[in-house]
Design a protein that fits this description.
With about 150 residues, the protein is mostly helical. The chain contains 4 helices and 3 strands.
Length: about 150
């Protein structure tokens, strides 16, 4: 009979998770520092050279923003489409997005990690959270999908 040491497996996985979170946090700090350095230094360049770098910077930031904003939009749409009485955990949201055809192929981290991070960053006016059997669950509480029209006076 094969004895599997699950405690050791979980312990190793928790350690790896901690290291991964630490690396992610360090990467975010590095990104912030680089953005500040570039912003301060690019202004020292002559106007013509600055324009070329501005285009390069815009391309990098546009790709990053498009990736994160499309996931946010997909999560918002899924929460809005779900019944107001139904709570969704991060894994349920990931499954809904995969089922709906959301493309995670451009994401470097696992879909579950990307969805988790995105959902945790959502505004409290948009979503409310609860704990179901020790797992955080989310549901839409913000204004509906369609903003209310102001009445003419």
């Amino acid at each position: 009979m094969n004895d599997v040491d699950y405690k050791s497996i979980v312990n190793d996985a928790v350690l790896k998770l901690g290291l991964a979170v630490q690396r992610r946090d360090q990467a975010e700090i590095e990104i912030t520092k680089l953005r500040q350095l570039i912003s301060a230094t690019v202004n020292m360049l002559p106007e013509q050279e600055r324009a070329a770098f501005d285009r390069q910077i815009d391309e990098v930031l546009k790709a990053d923003k498009a990736k994160s904003s499309s996931l946010v939009q997909a999560i918002r749409a899924m929460l809005q489409a779900t019944s107001r009485n139904k709570w969704l955990t991060v894994s349920q949201m990931r499954n809904c997005l995969v089922t709906s055809g959301f493309d995670f192929s451009d994401y470097q981290s696992e879909p579950l990690a990307s969805v988790s991070t995105t959902m945790k960053r959502m505004k409290p006016e948009e979503v409310e959270t609860t704990s179901i059997e020790g797992v955080t669950a989310y549901r839409w509480k913000g204004v509906g999908r369609f903003p209310r029209l102001k009445k003419d006076k």
